Amino acid sequence: MRRPLYVPALLALLATPALAQDDTWIQTRLIALDELFGDTVNLMAAFLFADFGTGFPLIVGVLLGGGIYYSFYFKWLSIRGFRHAIDVLRGRYDDPKDPGEITHFQALSSALSATIGLGNIAGVAIAVSLGGPGAVFWMIVTAVFGMSSKLASCTLAIMYRRTTDDGHVSGGPMYYLEKGLALKGKAEFGRTLAVIYAFLTIGGSFGGGNMFQANQTLEILSTVSPWFKDNNWIMGLIMAFFVGLVIIGGIRRIGSVTSKIVPAMCVLYVVSSLFIILMNVTQVPAMLVRIVSDAFTGPAMYGGFFGVLVMGIRRAAFSNEAGLGSAAFAHAAAKTDEPAREGIVAMIGPFIDTIVICLMTALVCMITGVYQLPEYQSGEFIVGVRMTAAAFDSAIPGARYVLTLAVILFAYSTMISWSYYGERAWEFLFGPRTILLYRMLFVAFVFIGAVTALNNVLGFSDMMILGMAFPNIIGGIILSPQIKAVLEDYWQRLQSGEMKPFR
Question: Does the structural domain 3-49+56-495 have CATH classification 1.20.1740.10?
């Protein structure tokens, strides 16, 4: 019952920067912070996007290569198990006595709330404008392979999670990297990967999962009225307050909120997109044909990969975060004693995120023709948001207001989910007694993100999120024989009828 008392503390933390919004001292140090991270951003980008003269960036090879490996190694269980995943989501296998804190549906909702966001709205628009319709094909391809990456990481999350005496669950890549590799005689290597991963996650949560979301929420609101931009500190306080109200309640409250927000925001966005698509349904077959045909021309292939990379940079690896291991944080808290079951549920994430929502965004941009306008060719997310808004408005006057509401919900859900990811990484490094400090810092960064434009800090954070792929995929491939054994055992019991639905 003491948790609500945290709210005054959080608000007190926010009060000082709010009252001092015009203080040059604060602005000077924010500029210095921006400059400090500038060289680091360039250094990380040089590594992550090194192509060694091939034109194929290293990070793309790691992410896509990991997905391809898992898909074939697990014998395409990501496809074979899709129907079973739907049954699990419907609650047919939910046993309230199973260990964990949230249901399968809440776990998937929490994970989706972190991935469905500006990558689906702005990132897709940029991919289509820069890479052409062929970019969409490569987005879908990466999503198909990404389903296997999610399957692997979230199965491991349940295998190596830990549960305290009070029922609190901690899980994620740090735990399976450390514990799993230790069991294979690679304890020091596993610990090193786990620590690196934890630091990357914390940095990513403050920037890409927090500041960037708050900043872009203000940007889309400014398309409705300049008042929001002129009074960004007020909106910063409001956003910080509502984020704080949720995150102080931990994963149970996050799961409860996201299980309501995610379906609502998906329905709102999907229905709006479908309305535009159905109004122009005669154009859809030709658009789909063009998506496939343009994917195999030289310029389109390169542009497709480039567009996907842009989405990955801003919304963490191909929009759906497959291969990064971030979803493992949410799925580790699921109520289940079957690791494979949660992995099978998790693989639906890339399907919904990319194959459904991203494809719809792309079709809207293509049908309206907005993606071809020269003013939307810069490759900046601010332009991508405005481009999608223009596409909606051109089809349905006033539709930008619906899009604005969707962006707000997307950004809000992303922030509260990434707060949990960062919190688990913080707990791993510094212990559970310091969690309140992390929560207070996270809420403060919501405000900072709303009132500043720290491009290099945001770039740094997004680079850190991309960097999460390296320790996660390296460790996951080493542990893949254990994953395969668990998956095959589960699937055999399911197919033989040994595993009965709970209801």
Answer: yes
